[in-house]
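Follow-up to my post from last week.
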Amino acid sequence: MMRTRPLKVALLGCGVVGSEVARIMTTHADDLTQRIGAPVELAGVAVRRPSKVREGIDPALVTTDATALLKRGDIDIAIEVIGGIEPARTLITTAFEQGISVVSANKALLAQDGAALHAAAEQHGRDLYYEAAVAGAIPLVRPMRESLAGDKINRVMGIVNGTTNFILDKMDSTGAGYQEALDEATALGYAEADPTADVEGYDAAAKAAILAGIAFHTRVRLDDVYREGMTEVSAADFASAKRMGCTIKLLAILERAADGESVTARVHPAMIPLSHPLASVREAYNAVFVEAEAAGRLMFYGPGAGGAPTASAVLGDLVAVARNKLAEATGPGESAYTQLPVSPMGDVVTRYHISLDVADKPGVLAQVATTFAEHGVSIDTVRQQGKDGEASLVVVTHRAPDAALSGTVEALRKLDTVRGVASIMRVEGE
Amino acid sequence: MMRTRPLKVALLGCGVVGSEVARIMTTHADDLTQRIGAPVELAGVAVRRPSKVREGIDPALVTTDATALLKRGDIDIAIEVIGGIEPARTLITTAFEQGISVVSANKALLAQDGAALHAAAEQHGRDLYYEAAVAGAIPLVRPMRESLAGDKINRVMGIVNGTTNFILDKMDSTGAGYQEALDEATALGYAEADPTADVEGYDAAAKAAILAGIAFHTRVRLDDVYREGMTEVSAADFASAKRMGCTIKLLAILERAADGESVTARVHPAMIPLSHPLASVREAYNAVFVEAEAAGRLMFYGPGAGGAPTASAVLGDLVAVARNKLAEATGPGESAYTQLPVSPMGDVVTRYHISLDVADKPGVLAQVATTFAEHGVSIDTVRQQGKDGEASLVVVTHRAPDAALSGTVEALRKLDTVRGVASIMRVEGE
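User reply:
Got it. Predicted complex:
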């Protein structure tokens, strides 16, 4: 079964993940050979800065011309760990045109152009694997695409961004404010100098789009994902959450509508009960709940980022793609046959936790309660607290369409007894 | 890509799991067709009692002659959900001889004869998939075989038997004794009339053998797995565990030795800290920690048994095997190239929690401490408690080889100041 001609691998990008992939390919070469059935050889490494010293990588393999590397005619598999849209997109397309299968860790590109890339892979009869694009080392794409291929996934809810989880965990455990916790995350290397992609939820939204497409066998684009960042979550919100027996997490939530005819995809901060397994996901860890009709509730947990964990996912895909190559077969491609539409955020059914600053006089609660009722939103609990002629009112609603909830908040803002809406947060996981 | 000639499936066994498989194959036929690329047709159902009414199954498909069903010449895939060694083993072998790929949920058979079955599958160029054999619906075999194929797994620790977890969880939360908790589990259908396979750890040991083989790419037979049941765990043990900030779980633990040259596999009850994620696995749920060199610590959690969850795993395998069949390829077979030997339990390095009934007189602690020292076992903590001329001594050790620990206990029993060894339990997860 073993053949001796090696499969040749082009590594596109050699940053934190790429250098780890190259290192493991070298140190664990014998194991990879046994598990694949043929040796895999690092045949070229395309980089932007060729002068940078890369320990353990033969300088003769390094090139700045990724296109020429792909076109030289002997490459079997390309590993794309450049990230971002271009040049990654053009290079992956070039690879397929050259009959090269691709392993990618590129969530932004997959979320934006997954359909076109899958089509190019299929047209040329090649593989496109991307386990590393979502939740780092945690096996999630393969279990959802393959292990649950005979089941019906109804809901996915998870923490898919380590940076924001680290920040929120710090705020929860130390009482720190957002900025202080962000500064600590930056100092420790958990947040980038420009943390926008993480804290505004763009990174999580890209992963949500990819997971939603896989979960529901339909196409979900990045633009289809409702997105709210977590920069406005405050120490006061955490104090409110604690009073409710909750904590706050930035969640990606993908749901099939009750009638099964549409899906929703969203990323936003939310309160979840401390008893929920996602509440105890600490530091930069990721965890994803998957609810399927027959399987029930499954959870996958692990490191969601980092060089070595991401490399582990890349190499798992490399073994699979290399095995497929030897068998002259391909793995599962895009499955989007259900063509379920993605409904807007207003259709999502959820609960709200709303803090209002109100005038401390009789009749205010009645006025507020009437506003909720007029919008068809049922109140679960109200807590009223007076302080020097002002009062705060904390309302937790029952489940209602998000449109009705936001309509209620809009109307509350117009009441002259309501001085301000201090915070609004969804409540999930119950 | 879609073909219309259906792939024909023989269902061997139609109990709790089999009937659920048949139901989902019927109700979700269109989805399965889309995901596979061809329809799958239930072509025959082999049962022991043909007269039993099976809702939703065409009586014309039912037969008592499983061998004839496999040999009739048009079957592509067999699903074996009979369980036990025979006739399952002979039927699976017959299937391979007939060019039929097999999906099995049979942990006992895989643990005992996995190597021979894998060899038969490979000889005939067919697939043998068995995700459902370990931890029900939880994707575990595929993630370990495929997602982590580019990584090095060093440790697996998990709760892989739902019945015993239900019993231990009840004992923990209610203070009940073993028999009382077992009775409740039996009444609720979590334990079988004869609970031996579960409570004595045989079921968990079979799963441990399968997982160890996959994790370490070697052969681990059922006989290689050290096994202790949980029938002697008492309410007093839980009280001791609580004092240590621990609970008690029946764990399957698979480890690569520090020098990498051997592995160990064991199933026994153990104390684990309440802060460990496995401590909060409740009722009949399963959860498995996997520690890999690059990926770090991963956890997989979900329902470990039951008709629908197990059927979910079977159907995921059915989709994969059917796809392989259409591509005229096979999935990954047995990977046992490392040929790492399995070391005996005595080589395992762990910690002990030991409760001794001792005479309440001076010098006893010195005598006990000397015994530990003579066996090279270092003591972490000692708690001494006197009562009416008797005293109890609770010793928690540092990590030491299991052989040294059991040697110490043997020597302690011989001390005339030691009236008895009330309990011995390993401490894990720190």
